[in-house]
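Can you give me the bound-state structure? Components:
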Amino acid sequence: MPFSFKVNKTSDKARAGLLCTDHGEVRTPVFMPVGTQAAVKAATPENLENIGAQIILANTYHLVLRPGSDLIENLGGLHAFMSWNKPILTDSGGFQVLSLSDLRKITDEGITFRSHIDGSLYLFTPESAVEDQAKLGGDIIMSFDYCTGYPCDYDEAERAVDLTTRWAKRGIDVFGPRFERNGYERVLFGIVQGSTYPDLRDKSLNELLDIGFPGYAIGGLSVGEEHPQTWDLAEQVADRLPADRPRYLMGMGTPLDLVDGVSRGIDMFDCVMPTRNARNGTVFTKTGKLVLKNAVHTSDSAPIDEGCGCYTCRNFSRAYLRHLFQAGEMLGPTLATYHSLYYYCDLMRQIRHVIARDDFRKWREEFNTVYSTGADNNG
Amino acid sequence: MPFSFKVNKTSDKARAGLLCTDHGEVRTPVFMPVGTQAAVKAATPENLENIGAQIILANTYHLVLRPGSDLIENLGGLHAFMSWNKPILTDSGGFQVLSLSDLRKITDEGITFRSHIDGSLYLFTPESAVEDQAKLGGDIIMSFDYCTGYPCDYDEAERAVDLTTRWAKRGIDVFGPRFERNGYERVLFGIVQGSTYPDLRDKSLNELLDIGFPGYAIGGLSVGEEHPQTWDLAEQVADRLPADRPRYLMGMGTPLDLVDGVSRGIDMFDCVMPTRNARNGTVFTKTGKLVLKNAVHTSDSAPIDEGCGCYTCRNFSRAYLRHLFQAGEMLGPTLATYHSLYYYCDLMRQIRHVIARDDFRKWREEFNTVYSTGADNNG
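Here's the bound-state model for the whole set.
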């Protein structure tokens, strides 16, 4: 079905909605597992379906470098390539060009850089970034942006906003906000930048609204600034985004971040945290993080999270999982990843449920009481 | 149900039978995936069930060193610990003590060695090896043996046979050939040693037959000797083993080895080859090995093995799998392992089928025509 987004229910600022694409529906708020290199690390597509993942993210920077966007298009696009038939969102490449590559040169034309894999030279332009994403085959694709780090002085932040706006316009001028390719629709989202400067965030937002996008992302946050500032800025932008368009807070975050983001009207999230932490043996539970390698779990017959319905918790003890990590067994990361992605997706299911009942505020208070961010329950 | 074994059909020397344990039935000939450290590397128990694995093997040496047999018994034994409810076979530890540990000292009492993990000192005796296996919880357990390497001079081989016989007797004197523990039955197999000396193989076999075991294994083969010699010795032993007891050829091997072993009346096999090779990107197909990393697969949309019904072949191309290995994604080993274990289990299914139809010889000729052992199809 063609792209659409509808907010069905609000609870304070929290929104429960439905986003439709040609690859199916996504109930929001939603967490998108990250499949950087056309694979969610340590999870099969079958695992992701069983976990309840509705949409996944893939990284344009990584995939253009290896195996290449032409190769993926020739093999039928990302959905066929990685055997994932639900919606996919690809990022613009902007964030990773600036965080991973070498010898970057930023001009009006775009960003020239060297691959972190083999040092070869690339130029990403606003047109090429959208074209690459069209080849990769994401249902939702992102405008090429200039994502600043932290700290960032005002002049650079202003330049980033100006370039991001001009690049967003160039992308939409060539492709339009929605276009069909290889038999299904692609939808372009704009990314609000502006670093930690409220006036630049407003400027960026207003300029993108003038262009007009089917959805908007908030970029360049949680890159080093203090957490209260992150939320002040995110809320400022979210409050001014059009109510009828999906809002995507890029690259965040912890379970608490997801709850805090939803409370500010965010609809879409992505983060490598559940998968990356799981591979190191740290998993999420209703009471906070749990470090599976800790000696306290040596003979613990309890599952990771009592009451969790995931494959890992239904079948394996903390003692077994600790053993797998101690022994360097790949099954440790696999089972831990399964749990933590299930935890994230289940958290969002609960959130959608309490928004539908207009009960989000009360639920959030209970969540904050039970969920500890301290180190004392690092098991 | 209590342990039993029955040969239902033979086709030349090949046998199709049914082995029963308190954890269920095993149709033979059977390949047992290796779960060294209480985990089949890169495979969940759910994967193994879907693949059609009927019984798995775990390694006593590894598990006694880490996490320890007491801990596993306290957590309900291997079946509960690793969430595998079908039969389990544990080896005696003898092979790995001699191949992995340091500072070994072999006496009448047993083998003293240092752990390859932390250098701590252990003594395995014929009694402790069975006791450890009883704690671990395998349905089928192995007598403690002295497994010689290659080359091995006659005197050492003779001493190994003598010790293996005396140790086998000591194990059975304490535990009996079958015993119940923690609510289900354990069955003890003897291991025929004798290195490459036909007379010592006979001596070992005759001494074990005098003791009397519910099943027999052929150990100490494929440790460096030439392949024709391996099969001469295996066949010599298999021909003299009692027809009504299961025959287990330890640690072998390639798909061709499985077919060759079945043709000599072997019922049970184990080998790390399918899982170890898969983690390195080499998988098995009906025409031989396939090296997924090879550049020829860069844009190959074909599955690993046309006509294979496994999850990997139903969903992923060689190009995608090559990409996963190139990118260092854990999903590569996972999907390759899935395929190769499925291939091994499916090969045994086919073999059981053609034995039941008394058509093994003809099937084997066809298999040998199609399956190439050469390097030319390492595609």
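A couple of observations. The first strand of chain A starts at residue 4 and ends at 11. The longest helix of chain A spans residues 331-356.
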